[in-house]
Design brief:
- The longest helix has 15 residues, at 77-91.
- The protein has a 7-stranded mixed β-sheet, with helices on both faces.
- It has 138 residues and is of the alpha+beta class.
- Helix content is 30%, strand content 33%.
- It contains 5 helices and 7 strands; from the N terminus they run βααβββαβαββα.
- The protein has helices at residues 7-14, 20-23, 77-91, 106-114, 133-137; strands at residues 2-4, 40-45, 51-59, 62-69, 96-102, 118-122, 126-132.
- The protein is globular.
């Protein structure tokens, strides 16, 4: 995984027709979206991006993460996720990484658990998970 701020690279994954409807409000078109760069890290995998991982700060020691992998590269999804998590723990002062996964994506929940996340709670619409630095290091 490598860090990028290039809108074209970010949107090559985020704006993909299989990904965009799952992550964006219906009222926003990919061409109209400007990825926020402040307090965000965008990591891409591959020269022609296969995956995009967004880490953004929620407070001083917590990052929220979002992982998207293009359909034709999903067999490498775990490799990309673990690489992005390692990048965050190796290159930032993060103590925990959190994510939220809507109930309609049980496969994504299973993927996050396999990557080391544990469920902290369920708000009725989505599962909330976390991965602590101490869990990652052990």
């Amino acid at each position: 995984m490598r860090l990028t701020t290039d809108r074209a690279e970010i949107m090559a994954v985020l704006g993909h027709p299989d990904i965009w409807p799952c992550v964006a409000p219906e009222s926003v078109a990919p061409d109209d979206f400007e990825p926020p760069l402040h307090d965000h890290y965008y990591l891409v995998a591959g020269d022609q991006p296969e995956a995009l991982v967004i880490h953004h700060w929620t407070d001083g020691d917590t990052l929220k993460t979002h992982h998207q992998v293009l359909p034709q590269h999903r067999e490498r999804a775990m490799e990309h996720s673990l690489s992005a998590l390692a990048w965050a723990f190796d290159n930032t002062a993060v103590e925990r990484i959190i994510c939220s996964i809507p109930h309609r994506f049980p496969n994504v929940l299973a993927h996050a658990k396999k990557a080391g996340f544990t469920v902290t709670h369920d708000d009725g619409e989505q599962h909330w998970l976390k991965l602590e630095r101490s869990q990652w290091a052990s």
